[in-house]
Amino acid sequence: MYLSLDTLKTSMKLPSQSDKLFHALAYFIFTFFWWVTIYSFLKVSFKKTIIIASFWSLLFGILIEFLQHFLTANRQGDILDILANALGTLFAILIINIFILKTVKS
To answer: Which residue ranges does UniProt annotate as crossing the membrane (predicted)?
Structure first.
């Protein structure tokens, strides 16, 4: 969370909008770990776990962008970051579903 609100000091010049890939990857990982934690430790049903992990991941992403927009002087919230976060979350859910369905059929 700190890195999401801190000023980034980098000497690397990245292509425009390339951070969206990093957002998607981060939220893929974030959602996956939410799912593993909830499913493994709380023993919640598969469907409910997917809903909870998706909800908290998306809510966190929206909150971070909101905080960047209103509480930092040198960061700005971006709707495209929220979209990239959502795509990472959706991709994680897709992979989790494919993996579980493959495991159940085996």
So the answer is: 20-42, 49-70, 82-101
Note the pTM of the prediction, 2 decimals: 0.80
CB neighbour list of residue 71: distance below 8 Å, 6 or more residues apart: 5
How far is Cα of residue 41 from the mean position of the Cα atoms in its chain? 20
Q: State the helix-helix crossing angle for 46-71 and 79-105, rounded to 10 degrees.
A: 160
Q: How many whole angstroms separate alpha carbon 97 and alpha carbon 81?
A: 24
Q: Render pLDDT for 32-62 as a digit per residue (tens, 0 to 9).
A: 999 999 999 988 888 999 999 999 999 999 9
| C-alpha distances out from residue 89 to 7, 11, 75, 94, 96, Å | 25, 29, 23, 9, 11
